[in-house]
Each structure stands twice: as C-alpha cells, then as structure tokens.
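Hey, quick one: can you model this chain's 3D structure?
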Amino acid sequence: MRLSIDHHTRYKFSVPQSRVVQLLHLTPYDTEAQTVLDWRIDVDCDARLREGRDGYGNHVTMLYVDGPVDALAITVRGQVLTEDMAGVIRGAPEPLPPLYFTRATISTLAGEATLALARQARGSDPLERAHRLNNAVGHAVTIEGGRSDSIVAPDDILARGTATVREAAQLMVAAGRAAGFPARFVSGHSLHGPDRGRRRTAHYWAELHLGAIGWVGFDPCSGASPDESYVRVAVGIGLGDVTPVAGTRVGGGVEELDVAVQVGAQ
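Sure thing. Here's the predicted structure for all 266 residues.
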C-alpha cells in the first residue's frame, strides 16, 4: 500500500520568544514492512535543522529558531510504501537488547488494576498470550480521538474507562511489562482509529518482544497487529521518547499548540 502523510504542527506564543529548540521524531525509516519513497520537513521561518539518530535507532531532527518569534509552523509531507507483515518487525535498527524494555517508567507503573489486566495473558504460547492481552486492553477502555495533555497512571486510565490512542498504547506497554514481556512505545501513523484518516495527533501503539519471533506490534485500538495501513516512525521505553514534537523555548508567556494529521492511501 502507498500511504501519504500530511502532518502539521503550529505553535503560537503569547509573547515573542528569543529562542526555540525542538526535538522532532517525525521521519520514518526503511524496514522490511515499509520503504520511505519521499519525505520532507518544512518550517515557516528561518531555522536550522540537524539530522541524526537517537539511542533507539530512530531518525531525529533538531530544530533551532532564533527569535524574536511569535509563531512557528512545522509541516511534514511524505509517502511510504508499506507491506503487511502481521506486525513482525524485521530490518529495523536494534541498538538495545530486549531486556532494556522491561524496566518500569513513570507512565507504565502497574497498580493492582493493571496487574489484574496482565493476568489475562494466560497460556504457554507467547504470540497467543500477547494477542489475548491486546484484546483485553482494547475491551477495558473506550478509545477516544484527540490528544492527551498530561500523563495519567495506567490504573487511573482503567478507572476512568476511556483512553486516547496514546493512553491505550500506554496501557498495553504497562500490562505487557507486568505480564513479563519486554514492551515499548511506538509512534507513527495509521489509516484507522477514532479519527479515521484525519487526526489531531500522531498514532500510537505498542511492540512486545516474543522470544524467537522477535518484536511484534500490537494496537489495542484495533485489537490487532499493525498491517500495511501503518507507518512506523519512532520507538522508545517511555512516552517522551516517541513524542513527535517536543522541546524548549526562551521567552516566557504561554503557548498554544495545534496539530493536524491526514493519512491517505493511493
């Protein structure tokens, strides 16, 4: 499948900023399931862009803007050719061992409710256990569109009964680690979800390491593994490691953030 991505991020500042520095996880890389055909990052003001890789093997772009600046728009457009590999990850850079992804982080601390959810992953076959857990997470909450403005503990998400796509991935990672799997966050894009085609955020899901099979993706929003309708951009042990746009600014005041993402198939 040939997927086209349009990702627009716009900041407005209440007072002009003297300096803005952003870390961008916006550029996918080639794996056996996806080939990047064309990709471009544009900024609507004078800016310096520095490309590199982070410790997870992700493509990263450092963006530097010297002020005064009262608004900043980042536009990402590209096309990716994808193939359905049932969520199995092959050909991706893996600088860290799976054991690294067993550590609990602030966003994945498992309370009693999350531990109870993890116990639903019963059985001897790792793949069956992981799919059972993915379905359990998807049925435990109602998935809503929109963006999460703050990080909520997994047990609190379960108690609330609703979750954004990012929070659903957070639950899957937390429950996966509680069930004994190395688990990590993934950010990227998908044709499907609560805001089909058009979103106010990137898409998020989880990957679990299943021994000899290796890393496999699981999306509690769909109850299945990612297929050719997904574009994988970044992975990490914590939510902050896969956030598409994050950074700092110097100048005070408050900021407004607006994100619009459109995914299409050709």
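One thing worth noting: The radius of gyration is 18 Å.
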